Amino acid sequence: MSDYMFALESHLDAAQNRTVAEIQRIATDAAITVWLAGGAMRDMLRGAPIRDLDFTVERDAPKIGKALAHSLHGHVIEEDSFKRGVELELPGGIRASVSNARTEKYSKPGGKPQIAPATIHEDLSRRDFTINAIALFLNRGAKGLLVDPTNGQADLITKELRTTNSMAFFDDPSRVFRLIRFKHVMGFEIASRTQSQLDNAVLGDYLHPDPTCLRADLKALASHESAVAAIEDLDRLDLLKLLSPALKGDKLNLPGLTRFEKQAHAIFPAGNEAGWLAFLAVLLEKLSPRDRAAALKALALPPNELKGFQKLEAAAKKRESALKSAKIHKPSQVWEVLKDAETAEVLMVAYESDVRVVQDRIRAYYQKYLPVAQEVTEDQVVAAGHKPGTPKFEKAYQAMVVTRLNARPKKVEPEPEPPPPPPMAMGRGRPAARV
Description:
435 residues; Beta Polymerase, domain 2; seven-stranded mixed sheet
């Protein structure tokens, strides 16, 4: 086993390792070469948690991806018939993509590219940044071979963001959003030549990508402590106008975002992407209803997210009212109020409420009550004689949680102090040494 394979397997959790092993098997049976590439390799090499698995294959990516989803009992959440790739959701909360190695040639900024099959070196060289242009060979024979045509490893060491080629922003202007996000989330510096490319792109006024591209980076940015700094950078580059021309000056809610960021990280120190709609609500808070509606239309939120956004304000007010009730006296009652709440809803309550008891109960729920409730396992309920999936099982589970939450912690009795040594008799000391 190569050092890189050992490092990869050490960074992956059990479910991710099963996914890598399974795509190795599927690709080998189909006589297709497969690499792990992109963000997964970037994060592995810099010692960061690996969130998504990005696989690149020589051909038949949709077929390989669907076979992987079927084998692991996951499902396809998106298929790109033009670029021949699939996005998967797999058990264990794993997101994975499987795409064909390809080249992309653009006739105008942000236009539809001409796609052609390519080698892995060509595929990596057409990507956005060098730190995303690294791949690991997964098939037998050369398993663990690292492919790094643009020397991305060096940029990971020096913590620099560098485009793979001089046309990177011309080909796909949305890469600017990713550049700003990486700069603030990873704490990397922009290489001088890449900064010049960015400045030229702004002066050339060809940074006009589809604003739905901004949605993906806003969503990925929302849970990070550096989100406000990144928004300020996007504002400086005048890129927020893609979302709404009105989103500037006093209509850009930087004070609100700063307060939101502080509240969010007090509740979720490690961040929580599931609350991104609350971040978006605060970002657009100062806009008129008309401008806000236009911004939402530009972002093209999926129907479920748009519905959640539209109901967020009312849901937060209702949840706040329940949390500040004088009838709450026990931990289990706080748990009952928040156990089914959406993350965005809780964050909006924390952002909008100035009631101290509401803030205290939210933090107590996540820091104390939820961890205690999670100590009650399905096995414990089964051991009590209840069958999973039945109403009695759920009722018994709820009762166990309530009992556990409301139980008073046992007082830890201090250990008794050891008795003092007996006093030495008068006139007796250490025996004299013999001469």
